[in-house]
Amino acid sequence: MSDLVFELENVSTTYKNDGKEFPALKDVSLQIKEGEIYGIIGMSGAGKSTLVRTLNRLEEVSAGSVKYYGKDLAGLSSKELRNVRHSISMIFQSFNLLEQRTVIENVEQPLKIAGIKRSERREIARKMLQTVDLSDKETVYPARLSGGQRQRVAIARALASDPKVLLCDEATSALDPKITGEILDLLKKINEERKITIVIITHEMSVVEKICDKVAIIDEGVLAEAGKVKDVFTNPQSKAARKLVFPSNPFDPSSENGKLIRIVFDGTNANVPFIANLVEKTGKKVNILSANTKSVGGIGYGQMILELPDNINDQKIITGFFKDSGLSVSEVDRI
Amino acid sequence: MSDYIIEAIRDGVFETLIMTFFGSLFSYLIGLPVGVILYATSKGRLLENRPANIVLGTIVNIMRSLPFLILLVLLIPFTRFVTGSSIGTVATIVPLTVGAIPIVARMVESSLCEVKPGIIEAANSMGASPVYTILHFIIPEATPSLLQGAAINVATVLGYSAMAGVIGGGGLGAIALQYGYYRYQKDVLWTTVILLVVLVMLIQEIGIFISKKTRKN
Fold it and tell me: Among the four A44, A185, A274, B190, which has the fewest Cβ within 10 Å?
């Protein structure tokens, strides 16, 4: 069990508003293993930011336990907790850099807290800036940097204390898609080279698809689904997961009896021409309303929304054919 | 204007500057820590402590609501105890300091409140202690705002120093009172007023300039 970094058991939290208590997380249990990139995804207000803050006890749990390498965080004294926090770094959506300090002074900050000598601090900070490719910005103030550069400084700062874990709270949400991609590549590189466990909070599917090994879906404070990204994204079980994974369908069937279905295929059968086979074998035709293919962890998976003919018998033959071919088929609700 | 008045005005400017400088210095020596404590002990802050906050806050509020002229009179025994006299330039520094402390404290507190909560959360996540967070995260981030507040406070102390002329303090205020008010020498009155205005404006501009220079965002 030593490779378990975080173990959450039936975690619940509450927040106070006007003296009343509201639940933020309800009975969440999950495990994060060493070296994983773990994505936590959900709509805003779902409780994912609260969840990530229970991992370094910025947020106290009201029930259940959060264990970090087997140790219950709730049982730590404030001094022990500060030591634990040296090994769990965090980056934020709004970067949270000191605006009145230069880039290198920002990167040195966690080392200063740990009581490391000035000359040594400089040296480590320089190395960290090299890692994030910002060596030329040492003496610049954060206000002069772009969003992507600021997040790189934040990452360098997070890495300076040589942490075991990096928590990312919507770290790419304030950045444009191209810069998001660069930051994610950097995180992936850090994960591989330094064997750091990374927990990523996001509301963007594309972030999880791009770098996460595992994913947990949080919906209204409840853990809706968790597992390997490939499994959850190709075959989502919960309603919340389906809502996230499948984009909503903007079409209605063109006639009264028409029916829309969604077929999902994963890497194992993505190169089979299903539609052509359908026409050839059964002689029935379908209308493709939308289709897309994504790469999840290097494996192609896709989904299509098809409109079936009016005849109920034909509909049965067509869905039967797809099911026999090993695709997952589900009916699409009318708008 | 006769020579001796010009000489008196020259001395007055010097005395005013001395009073303003030391009054401001001492009021910051005490007011800055008081402001930090007011900030840190308030609700939801790093060292939340309601009893301490209420006691300190009440004292500050009472001191702040006393008109400065009344405070001058009330403090005469204390001033005499500290400086051995209740009149003159040095003696005036005592009530100036006491009067400015609550203003400085509240100004400092509001500057610190402007620091983004995210900065404090980042410090927390790095394992910084509350005191470390205040000294190395919050105060440095608030420095430009603190300096801007200081410019206003110094100008206030200068204004107060003129008022001290009423009970025998030195400086331009005393000259304006003695020659301008009691002797109806309008030219002396206006000269001192203009000098006071110029001094306040100078302090304000220098303060804002320094604050802008230090601001990096």
Answer: A44
